[in-house]
Amino acid sequence: MIGIFIFAIVFRLVLAAMMPIKIYMHAGYDDALSINQALNILAGKWLGEYGTGTLTKGLSFTFFLLVNHFSQLSYPLFLCLVNMGAAFAIIKALSPLIKNKYLSGIGFLFLIYSPATLTSDFSLRVYRNSLVFATVLFVLAGILGLYLRRKETIKTRIPWSILLTIAFPFFWYLREDSIWLLPLYIVATFCTLFGIIVQNQSLGSSLKEVLRNFWQLLKAMNKQKIISNLLLLAAPVLFTLGEALLISKTNQDHYSIFTTNDRTKTSFAKLTENLIQIDNSGYDKKSIAEDNGIWVSKRTFAEAQKISPTFAKYRKGIDWMLKDSIWPDSWPVKNGELPGDMFVWGLREMFQREGLYKNGGENEKVFKQINEELAEGFKSGKLKRKKLFFVTKQSNGKKSEDMGKVFSYLRAGVMETALYKSYRTDYGGSIFMPEQPAQVVLDLLNVKTVSTIKEGMAAEAKRTRPIVLIINGIILLYRIISPVLLLVSLGSALIFIAGYVKKKKTRSVLADYLIIFLGLLLTYLVYLFGVSWFATWAPKGKALFMFFYTGAGVPLIQVFELLALVLIVKNVQNQLFEKKASVN
Question: Longest C-alpha distance within the chain, in Å?
């Protein structure tokens, strides 16, 4: 077993080292943005000159590239080691539940060979999505490591608090939609604190008894111990807030705007929110007003200009955005309107063409003035807000009849994250820009050479063909076993939940498993629901969106499946209920 285990780890590293990466320097708001920011930081220029994309994305991936650079390891090898570190962390965190070393080893291999770590769009492309799998596992490891050790000494919880204090801020600033993991962290933190206070004491049967006894235990607890534990549990949030202040202050020093990003914060984010929520049913034809793929119609821009004199000053730029820019054709919708959130990126480039995006402070003044004028329009009744339900301020609202489409997208997300429907690896050449030397980018990533879409692709495809076949074979194996694994995992969870309800003697043994099951599944569904809510605007984009933007769901469902299998094995071996102390 040890030999097989070592061979599997070395083989996984070999796969990572031999596969070429994809560098897309034409993706100015995505791949190229983080790469150029890392190069600018190395040159002592912070994030570079202020422009439309400077503050649109979180900085975690940028700093990951810098750490990778100083490690002197190639990007794919460094990323593989990070994925392995995350897998080791979650297996170690779950060790109070997974005591069998063979199960732990199999679980580790199950995670490091996950299709999310082998699929080219996640693991080969130099983009922030490649880090989602590892960061979610690290955060889960910190959360569950603390929770499962809530009845142990504070010394045993310190390493898990440190891990979570590092991982949570990094995860928070990896993407702009990281809020979906916050409920799990909050609930788990309260459960951990509750366990620290109560330990193994019985609180009684009635709510009144529980509250009274809990209060007595809290009062009897050493105050220094309470404060120490509170600091350990609150450290991830405190450090996240501290990082936000540091980033915001640095941005203020360089760009005259105090913010971590101007996509979900600042007056520009408020401007896009106001535009999205303007009700266009009174002046647009029904086919446009009821098209959920059109967030802001052409007529809505015209109406907003009537209300806001400041916005009207940019009439020429708005006409350019609606008629001549690339954004109306990026995801074509009916009637030639701007599709979904493409208007957000169109607005940025429009304002830049009209003289803004030279200084963040000046931008803020203009956008704030437009918002005040639009707010007055809403107040006076000249503008009306859509009678829709809004989950997020940065996405269009929905009516009850739209929910069928949302759940259709959610089902597609389950197919991708639990059954790996579209996961595969193939080879594609990199794309560089003429004005930027490719060698500078390769030096940043510690990569010696890559082929481009114009040169070297045929040779590289031939060289990597055996590796591609092996990786796709591994992914195919996961795809074959995943339906059975998912059904068995869900079935076992339901059976053990029923056992928990019927037999009181099993509750202390099963409680931790079932609480974690519930937390993982609810978080998984909340995450997929959020992506589905956003993605419904893209015509014919369901397959792409629910594959490319749902990678964070894979580690959640794989940890769930792993724990479910552990329960089954323990039950088959008659070890589950022999000794309560063996699990708790």
Answer: 76
**Sign of the alpha-carbon dihedral angle for 102, 523, 146, 505:** negative
If one counts every other C-beta atom within 10 angstroms of the C-beta of residue 69, the result is 18
What counts of helices (H) and strands (E) characterise the chain?
24, 0
CA neighbours within 13 Å on the CB side: how many for 89?
A: 29
What one-letter code names the amino acid at 554? V
Pair 342, 327: CB distance under 8 Å: yes
Task: Please choose, from the candidates 103, 101, 80, 89, the residue with its C-alpha nearest in 3D space to the C-alpha of residue 143.
Answer: 89
Q: For the chain, which ranges sit under pLDDT 50?
A: 578-584
Q: How far apart are CA 508 and CA 502, in angstroms?
A: 13
First to last CA, the chain: 27
Dig out the tokens for 351 from the structure. Answer: 């304002």
pLDDT for 413: 94
- CB atoms < 10 A from the CB of 581, how many? 8
Calculate the dihedral angle through the C-alpha atoms of 229, 232, 234, 235, rounding to the nearest 10 degrees.
Answer: 160
Give the side-chain half-sphere CA count within 13 A for 121.
11
Map residue 434 onto helix, strand or coil. Answer: coil
Beta bridge partners of 452: 430
Q: Alpha-carbon distance 333 to 28, whole Å? A: 23
Residues 545 and 162: their CA atoms lie apart, in Å, by 34
As beta bridge partners, residue 398 has 389
- DSSP characters over 298-362: HHHHHHHHHH-HHHHTTHHHHHHHHHTSSGGGTS--GGGPPPTTHHHHHHHHHHHHTT-SS-HHH
Query: What is the predicted pLDDT for the residue at 577?
Result: 56
Within 119-201, where are the H helices? 132-147, 154-172, 182-198
* 3 state DSSP class of 278: strand
Residue 254: which H helix or E strand, with range?
A: helix 223-255
Pair of tokens at residue 285: 């034809």
Whether the model clears a pTM of 0.90, i.e. scores above it, the answer is yes
Over the stretch 305-347, which tens digit does the pLDDT of each residue have? Answer: 999 999 999 999 999 999 988 888 877 776 778 888 899 999 9
Residue listed under structure tokens 């493409």: 342
Confidence (pLDDT) at 392: 83
CA distances from 1 to 97, 361, 461, 565 (A): 21, 61, 35, 19
How confident is the model at residue 142, as a pLDDT? 97
What's the DSSP call for residue 21? P
Given phi > 0 = left and psi -120 to 50 = alpha, else beta, which region is 259? beta
